[in-house]
Amino acid sequence: MGTTALMTAGGVFAAGFLVLALESYHWSATEYRVEISNLPDAFHGFSILHLSDLHGRVGVFSWPPFQEWLAQADLVAITGDLYSPTRRRAPLARRLDALAAPEGVYYVSGNHDYRARRLMVSPWEPGGRLLDNRVVTLTRAGQRLLVAGLPDLVLGQPDWLGVRRALEASLDVAILLSHRPDAWLLPGVERVALILAGHTHGGQVVLPGLGALARHTRIPGGYVAGRLETPSRPVLITSRGLGTSELPIRWGARPEVVRVVLMRRGVQ
Question: Which candidate in 47, 159, 218, 253 could, as Cys together with 202 as Cys, close a disulfide (CB 3.0–4.6 Å)?
């Protein structure tokens, strides 16, 4: 191959890589309305802003659709993987500290939040926002909604049995935050009405006819992101997340901010 041909091939490769890299900044806003038959009336229309897999990205915090949804959110749920080794931590930590919602901001850990199997998210200090192996009760007009969380199912120390027992001690509707969507496969998970997860990046690179090159989940059927609902298990919503890991590229799996609106079934 001659020099000109090599230069042409190199230019095509560089242009292709640039296109793939640019998609990682092409945010999308996805809304899901989830009907729950026994949802208390006080929580009909309850809005959850779901963020996942930020990997150090802070640009989305200035995006008008994000700011609008944040202003309207009743609760902010962050399902892990905060940082990236190639990006400074402090800018994201400041953005996380500034997040607020009437019913709180809650975070569960992801695999990239651990170093030597220890949770290491400084300089951010999640404090009471850390929901790993915890259940909190939200109360409105005397009615209750439970929000539970699990740490990363592989690198964390998830206590699903303890969380499940706490949930089963109540008849209140419960939602679960988990970094990995595989929480959907846990025994007894039908106790919760909704799971919010991340981790998969929606495959990060999804090719027409082939699907995701890497799924990062054991859920069958080629599932990598979005809404999954079956009669015997809770609604699962897995965000494609906002950042990237390994290669800084995306294709066919745009980064996304997710809003989930809880609806009482049969109420308009």
Answer: 253
